[in-house]
Design a protein that fits this description.
By secondary structure, the protein is mostly helical. Helices cover 57% and strands 5% of the residues. Strands 1-2 form a two-stranded antiparallel sheet. The radius of gyration is 14 Å and the shape is globular.
């Protein structure tokens, strides 16, 4: 199940160009989605410093959440329905 979700989300990230849109990457993710120790599917470079304010964080992260959540929800919904 985890492998399916990881592969599907990474495919969507590629198709939807999350790298150029949101700074998405898999640099710190295990390359093999079957590896049970891998919890990261994709990461996002926010460009924020460690001492950013909550408002700065929300300004950067909210568009990522808004754009990616419906696509991830669709994968989960399809799996539950199927």
């Amino acid at each position: 199940m985890k492998t399916l979700f990881t592969n599907e989300i990474r495919l969507i990230a590629q198709e939807e160009k999350w790298e150029s849109r949101f700074g998405a990457h898999t640099r710190q993710a295990w390359p093999d989605p079957r590896d049970t120790s891998s919890l990261m599917v994709v990461g996002f470079d926010s460009g924020l410093s460690e001492d950013c304010t909550p408002d700065e964080f929300v300004r950067v992260v909210l568009p990522i959440i808004d754009a990616t959540t419906p696509l991830i929800d669709e994968i989960v919904t399809d799996d539950v329905a199927g």
